[in-house]
Amino acid sequence: MSMETTELTGDGIESVHVWQAYVMCAMTTVMFYMLGEILDRLGKPKCVAPEVEFWKWRNITISWIHGVICGTWVFLCLVLYPDLVRDPVAYINNFMYLMVPFSAGYFIYDTIDMKMNKKLGTYWEVTLHHFVIVSSFIYNFNIRSCIGYNVIILMAEINTIFLHMRKLLQMCHIGFDTKLYRFVSFINIFTFVTFRLIPILRVYSGLYLDFHRVSLTYVVTFWWTITTGLVINLILFWRLVKSDILRGFSGKRKQKLDNATGKSIFENGDLNFDKDE
Questions:
Q1: Which of 12, 65, 89, 228 is most buried, with most CB under 10 Å away?
Q2: Which of 89, 202, 199, 87 shows the shortest CA–CA distance to 144?
Q3: For the purposes of burial, counting CB atoms within 10 Å of the CB of 13, is it exposed (0-12), middle (13-18) or buried (19 or more)?
Q4: In this predicted structure, what is the pLDDT of residue 96?
Q5: How far is residue 179's CA from residue 160's CA, in Å, rounded to a whole number?
């Protein structure tokens, strides 16, 4: 049996329909908008620090919910259909296919939400991330190819669960000195490497191995998309390492000193509320 000449197609391209992808994308955008409206009416929980901007808490919360849904979806894809990693170009079925427009719909919603709240410039790296990801997702579900690569990219959402959980803990004044925060921080760093950085390397290797199966335009465009994502994620990873690892005991001593002098932990720079992704 020749592995090089055998395509793993799953259920095949005829099993998925582009119109369903657009319906899923639109429904997801509306769903997250309605979720945002519900959170607007409920207001900020009492456990969240008064210094925290309501929009920032709501935005992180909705992103966390997307991460839980999509992260679970990705995990099921990897468990149920492991061949998608072996042949991310041709392997396709409806279950993994519809996850792509689902996530595209969320990123479209988030971009609209940032635009409405005048945050596009403030979080320019998030805006750039959303633009390149949505462009890639829409193109792929239109041509019904390379869906496996999108699934591999969306492995990052498994990490998003812990990345945003860390931020939500900060917003509730649960800081670096607590066991809960340290545990979430450790899982966050671990999943960041395993589900964000390593999958990007898999995509890079795939661009080389599958070069002959896709157009040059696609390779160049996808390379630019992945490289942009890699740069953004490396910057974020450095911020996390600097905040949660490098400060170590010096950070704890500083926080104790601030607490002893009555200084707010929101003033010492340890707990910043920048949008994580």
A1: 89
A2: 89
A3: middle
A4: 97
A5: 20
